[in-house]
Design brief:
206 residues; mainly alpha; 82% helix; 10 helices
């Protein structure tokens, strides 16, 4: 196949569209910051929105495997890494907005927050868990680590659980969005448990 044929395959075009769409939330935040349309507390808006989108992309990445198994659309697996990396990117923006706006990049203040405020500890741990997953997301690391790669990347479930709890404790409201995110995560993890129990001979990483 020619280079042009590879570039313009339908899957490639869809991946490009998903990539561009994933940048939209950040672009809207930048536009809002420039035009002064982020509400009365722009810093809080940026923190909340980047955190929400990190969680959304994390859940979308976890949704790939169940949807693929239900539909047989194996091509969806090509989008999982991209969605996971966007989840990490928005988590980075979320962490940096908190560290800069709230703490002026003071490391000691951040450490104090982590030790004294449970919801900060939950979010920070969720973020730290994502770091090795993002760093080892390349094909080269997959080859080098072999089966250990799958074992390491099961930590995404831990990160997702901690992220949902972090959000719920942050907004201090256990209705609305926090509940829906928790339900979505429960369904996605529950689907994996059901699959694992029904296919004991095929216990592979998802």
């Amino acid at each position: 196949m020619s280079v042009a044929g590879r570039v313009f395959r339908p899957v490639t075009l869809i991946k490009l569209a998903v990539f561009v769409a994933a940048l939209v939330p950040q672009a809207l935040l930048i536009r809002g910051a420039v035009t002064g349309n982020l509400g009365v507390n722009p810093a809080e808006t940026i923190q909340l929105e980047t955190g929400r989108w990190a969680l959304k992309f994390l859940l979308l990445s976890l949704a790939i495997t169940p949807v693929r198994r239900l539909t047989g659309w194996n091509v969806l697996i090509q989008f999982r890494r991209m969605l996971g990396l966007f989840a990490f990117a928005y988590a980075v923006f979320h962490f940096l907005s908190y560290w800069s706006f709230d703490l002026n990049f003071a490391f000691s203040a951040m450490l104090g927050d982590v030790l004294k405020r449970p919801f900060i500890a939950l979010g920070f741990t969720a973020f730290l868990v994502m770091v090795p997953l993002a760093l080892t997301s390349t094909k080269g690391w997959i080859r080098r680590m072999g089966k250990r790669w799958a074992q390491l990347h099961r930590l995404v479930y831990v990160s997702a659980i901690l992220a949902v709890l972090h959000y719920a404790f942050k907004v201090k409201v256990f209705t609305g969005d926090p509940v829906w995110y928790a339900i979505a995560l429960a369904v996605l993890l529950g689907a994996r448990v059901v699959w694992w129990l029904r296919q004991p001979a095929r216990r592979v990483s998802t």
